[in-house]
Amino acid sequence: MKITTIGLGYIGLPTSILFATHGHHVRGVDANPAVVETLNQGFIHIEEEGLQKLYNEALQSGSFEASLTPNESDAFIIAVPTPNKQDAYKSCDLSYVISAVESTLPYLEKGNLLIVESTIAPRTTEDVVKPMLEAAGFTIGEDLFLAHCPERVLPGNIAYELVHNPRIIGGVTPACTAVAKAMYQTVVQGELIESSASEAELSKLMENTYRDVNIALANELAKIGLDLEINALKVIEMANRHPRVNLHSPGPGVGGHCLAVDPYFVAAASPTFSPLIQNARRINSSMPDFIVENVEKLMEIASNKKITVFGLTYKGNIDDTRESPAQEISVMLQHAGYDVTEYDPHVAHANIAIEDACRDSSLILVLTDHKEFETIPVSATDVMDTAQILDTKTIVKEHDATLFNLGNMHEAIRKIPQNM
């Protein structure tokens, strides 16, 4: 089967490689010439466990090629970004999806399958994409098949989860669902769940909204714990020993192109009936301000204004900085007048010697849960001006410093003279 994938980012590239290593011939299309050039030189441009090895297999078999333009295929997969618009509800910007669909029109033929994998607002497939294809002369479900099949993967483990996770197959018609299911059956070992396109869209959004809402509860608890001088992390640990309770962990905010983006699409589609979703977004979006405010309190008695930020990505062990609260916090601290050194072994510009990052620093601020941060070597803390750590991700296990986190931060702040 010949497949064209439009968009070679964190989802489009692994998806393309997956199909290419399962007997299909794939043309991967991206608008960025640098991405296409890098891939055609034999290298992937994202950090993802095991993906380069799979890409090598696809290249050796001759089943993958990268290009700036589509070509005739049996199936087309749309995997382009869907950012937020800058409107009142941060609704879904469909411009990339619309452009991607338009790019396929000269190559579409009767019997083809078009799948939107991009995360999109509810009813987009039926109300936006379907009319575009009908205007081009196709009858959906008869001579052209259209479906929304959202990914549900964990960055850092995408290659495994694309194969083994359940997959929703949301066809615009039952015939569309059947054709899309037949294609995914060639690569997916997990359950293939049949649905309508609109059900698939809303399901994907609610999966991430569920997590965002629960993280908001934990973040709100962290604020309550600081206010009442109660260790919120200890509270969470004890509460989770209840057989029907599973509180999430608080942190410096929510990032990435899922949890920090998708809930807005639901809220924008139904603003009157989504107050909980909207409030959860406000709580999580407020966490960078909360962290900066309390870092400023911790730094009031510091002998200098140097802070070392550990981690710039939105989650641990990957290189993805999209919507990263860590980056936001770093910039906010710099604007507040602090001398900030960024250290992140997964981000090129911040991959420096840990001792150089910590030299003369008055605070290590851990904002990402990279495995490398579980142990902070003595060689790093020994060169600090004040050996103290604020671990917002509860990742640090071995260290030689004064350690604070979102549970016991009140103990440090309480000791700061109030008349300073």
UniProtKB/TrEMBL annotation:
> What SUPFAM superfamilies does this protein's entry cite?
6-phosphogluconate dehydrogenase C-terminal domain-like, NAD(P)-binding Rossmann-fold domains, UDP-glucose/GDP-mannose dehydrogenase C-terminal domain
InterPro entries in UniProt: 6-PGluconate_DH-like_C_sf (IPR008927), NAD(P)-bd_dom_sf (IPR036291), UDP-Glc/GDP-Man (IPR017476), UDP-Glc/GDP-Man_DH_C (IPR014027), UDP-Glc/GDP-Man_DH_C_sf (IPR036220), UDP-Glc/GDP-Man_DH_dimer (IPR014026), UDP-Glc/GDP-Man_DH_N (IPR001732), UDP_ManNAc/GlcNAc_DH (IPR028359)
What's an example of a GO molecular-function annotation for this chain? oxidoreductase activity, acting on the CH-OH group of donors, NAD or NADP as acceptor
Q: What's a Pfam family this protein contains?
A: UDPG_MGDP_dh
One of this protein's GO BP terms?
polysaccharide biosynthetic process
Limits of the UDP-glucose/GDP-mannose dehydrogenase C-terminal domain: 308-398
Keyword terms: NAD, Oxidoreductase
Oxidoreductase in keyword set: yes
Asked if the record carries the keyword NAD, the reply is yes
Q: Which family does it belong to?
A: Belongs to the UDP-glucose/GDP-mannose dehydrogenase family.
Please report the name of this protein according to its UniProt entry: Nucleotide sugar dehydrogenase
Question: What organism, scientifically named, is this protein from?
Answer: Listeria grandensis
